[in-house]
Each structure stands twice: as C-alpha cells, then as structure tokens.
Amino acid sequence: MRRLRFDVAYDGTDFHGWQVQPGQVTIQGVLEEIIGGVEGRPVHVAGSGRTDAGVHALAQVAAISIENPIPVDNFRRAVNRLLPNTIRINRVREVRSDFHPRFDAVRKTYEFRTFREELCSPFLRRWVHYHPYPLNEKAMAEAAAVLLGEHDFTAFAAADDRDAQSRSKVREIFHSELRRQGDTLVYRVTGSGFLKHMVRNMMGVLFEVGKGNLTADDIGARLQPNCGIRPGPSVPPSGLILVSVEYDEA
C-alpha cells in the first residue's frame, strides 16, 4: 500500500464545500469518485481541512492510500484528465504511511479578497467579495493586528458538529495583515488552525470596524475567554481562498 500526498487547487463556486455530503456535489466527493475509478476500488481522500461551500483553494493538501503502482506523474495526469476543469491536482509525491494532511499540519494561510472599485469584471467576480462602498481601510488594518497571538476564538467560530466533544477553540495567529493591492483589499492570515467560519467571521468583524460600527478594542473584547459575544457578522465565501498548508518536513 502506498501513501500519496498532493495539492489540490479548485474554484469552489459550484461545489458544496470540501467534505462529502449526501446529495451534494463536493470537492472530496468528486476526487473520491475519480481516484476510486483509477484505483478500481473505493478510496478515501483525506484533506487538511473542510472548506465551506463557495470557498476556493490554491493548495489544499490531500492524501490517499492506494495499491496501484502507477508513477506519481502519470497518476496526476490520469486523474486531471477525468476531473472537471474547476479542480486540478498538483505536486503528487509518496510520503510515509501514517501521514495525515490535517493532523500533521502546523500552520495554514488564507486570503480574503475584497474588490473595492465600482466596476468589477465578470471574469473576476467569482473569486472576490464585491464591496465598492466606503470603508476606513486604515482602521481595519490596525484592527487586524489585534488578532495576532494565541487567543480563544469562540466568538469567531460558527457552531460545529464537533462542539459536543468540547474541543479547545484556542488558536494561534502568526500573521494577520490587511493591505491594498490595486483595486483589491487583501486580508492575509496565517494560523495554527482555523475553526468553522473563523476567517469569514474575522473578516466580517474587520468590515464592521471599517464601517465605524466597531473599534479595535471591540475586537480585543471578543478574544477574551467566556466573553459571551455571539459570532458574526460573516462575509460571503466567494472572496476566501486557502493559500497554503505547511508541515514540519523533518
């Protein structure tokens, strides 16, 4: 049995997220169907995380265990020929048998992209959040820095089916920066891990700062344990992209 690790890039617009769900078209479901056909038996595709419906990825990390001796480059080409053109597999390699994309990850990076001008090209519209209305971008950038460090992000997390397991919602944010790139406002965040809807809720709160409804101090209050503040508001998924997942290669 071989363990293969690979990066997956996808436009999530037409998919109901990463995770397999009955009656829904998902990234994981499509990959399992295609790769299972190549392998000749059912295959489980493990991912580094569960992106929401409509969220995109430049390099989602996934892994499978297969018996097929096909060389990794031939495997990549064979699977990509069968996948829809909104999903592509990159950088396939063999790894140790116990490698897990989610449990072995040490940090992840997301970007949320907001198009700020009046006219948004239809060729760009699927991959940004369109918001041409006034925002105090300087205040938003200053508030983004408040999210740095290790905090309890309960006030930024949507309800999850794993909540019953009482898992900690403490995460560490290593990088949190919001800056302009031409017509687009880009929020880039790197953390030890992210909770359900966490980045979208973080960005939603930064928008409230930009609108003048909240301050950086209000964000700090949301990071206090047992603050009792409900998560939200959230932003649409179209602007959110999983950029990279990092591992301790040693």
How does this model look, in words?
Helix content is 21%, strand content 30%. The chain is an alpha+beta fold. It has two domains: 2-95, Pseudouridine synthase I, catalytic domain, N-terminal subdomain (Alpha-Beta Plaits, 2-Layer Sandwich); 106-247, Alpha-Beta Plaits (2-Layer Sandwich), CATH 3.30.70.660. Strands 1, 2, 3, 4, 5, 6, 7, 8, 9 and 10 form a ten-stranded mixed β-sheet that branches. The model has no long low-confidence stretch (mean pLDDT 95).
Low-confidence stretches: none
In CATH terms, the superfamily of the largest domain is Pseudouridine synthase I, catalytic domain, C-terminal subdomain
* Mean model confidence by pLDDT: 95
CATH class of the largest domain: Alpha Beta
- Helix/strand-derived category reads alpha+beta
Round the Cα radius of gyration to an integer and report it.
19 Å
CATH topology of the largest domain: Alpha-Beta Plaits
CATH architecture of the largest domain: 2-Layer Sandwich
DSSP helix count? 5
Distance between the termini: 22 Å
H/E series, N to C?
A: EHEEHEEEHEEEHHE
- What share of the residues lie within helices? 10-25%
**Major β-sheet, in short?**
10 strands, mixed
The total number of structural domains is 2
Q: How many distinct beta strands?
A: 10
Provide the β-strand percentage band: 25-35%
Global outline: globular
